[in-house]
Amino acid sequence: MKTNRLRKSLLGMTLSVSLFASMTVMAAPHAAHAATSNTVSTASTSASTKAGSIISLGKRYLGVPYKFGSQKGTTRTFDCSSFTQYVYGQYGITLPRSSKEQSQVGTYVPRNQLQPGDLVFFYSPIHHVGIYIGNGKVMHTYGSPGVTITDMNSGWWSTHYKTARRVIK
Question: For this structure, is 160 an active site residue?
Answer without folding.
Answer: no
